[in-house]
Amino acid sequence: MLLGYLRIKIEALKSGDPKSSDDSIDSYDTTWTGETVELIELAYALYASGNTNNGKATIRQIIAALERAFNIDLGVSIGYFKTYE
Q: Using CA of residue 1, residue 33, residue 61, residue 29, what is the dihedral sign?
């Protein structure tokens, strides 16, 4: 579901209208049930791959997308990068 969402958003960005999509992430009823650190590791893996927004997505953008996709707060205001400290 996340990959589907990201593809829709990429196509919307290419078309110049980031809000245009037939399928909204809000329609997904997904909840992250693993450890928070595992989702943060996934975010960093996506960032490191360079395959999000043609390698221009920031870690903050990827974290925000995952938070919306999985209905979880990863503590961006606290600093998700501190997870590794």
A: positive
Whole-prediction pTM: 0.62
pLDDT tens digit string along 11-20?
777 776 545 5
Query: Residue ranges of the domains in the chain?
Result: 2-84
- Give how far the C-alpha of residue 29 lies from the chain's centroid of Cα atoms, to the nearest Å: 15
Q: Report residue 21: phi and psi, to 5°.
A: -165, 145
Instruction: Name the one residue in this structure whose structure tokens are 């990959």.
Output: 3
DSSP 16-82: T-TT--SS-GGG------S-HHHHHHHHHHHHHHT-SGGGT--HHHHHHHHHHHHT----TTT-GGG
Distance CA 35, CA 51 (A): 24
User: Where does residue 39 rank: exposed (0-12), middle (13-18), buried (19+ CB within 10 A)?
Assistant: buried
